[in-house]
Amino acid sequence: MIHVPHVAAGAVILGGLHNQLSGALVYGPLFGHVWLAAMNKDKGGDGWMEKQSAKEQMTPLMGKEFLLNLGKAWFTGLLLNLTQARTLSQAAQLGAFLYLGVLVPSVASETMWEKRPVDLQKFKLLSGFCSTVLLACVMHWWGTA
Q: What residues have CB less than 8 Å from 56, skipping those under 6 apart?
C-alpha cells in the first residue's frame, strides 16, 4: 500500500500563492520585456501571442496557472513530509535536489535538442529555482504537517 501523507491545506495555499507571485514578478515587472524578446526570438515573431484576446484570456489562464501552482505546492509538501524534513536546511536541500535533478537536466536537454534561446532557458532556471528551492523553504516555514 502506498502511503500518502497529509499536507496542510494552508501550506498548499501559501505555496500556490508563492509560485503565482514569484512567476508574476519574474515574467512581469522584473524581467517581462526580456522574456517577451526571448519568446519572440524563439517563435520567430510575436504571432504566438493573440493580441486582441490577450486581456480576455488572462483571467482564465491565471486561474489555470494557480491550480497548477497548487499542484506543485501539494507535491512539494508531500515530499517534505515523506522525507521528514525537520529543518529549513533540509527543506532547502530537498528543493535543491529537485532543481538540480529534474529541472536543470530538462533545460539542458531542451537547449541541446530544441536549440532554445539561452535567455529563455535562463527564465526557466530562475522560475524553476523559485518553484523548487524557495517553495520548499516557504512551505517548511509555514508547516506542511
A: none
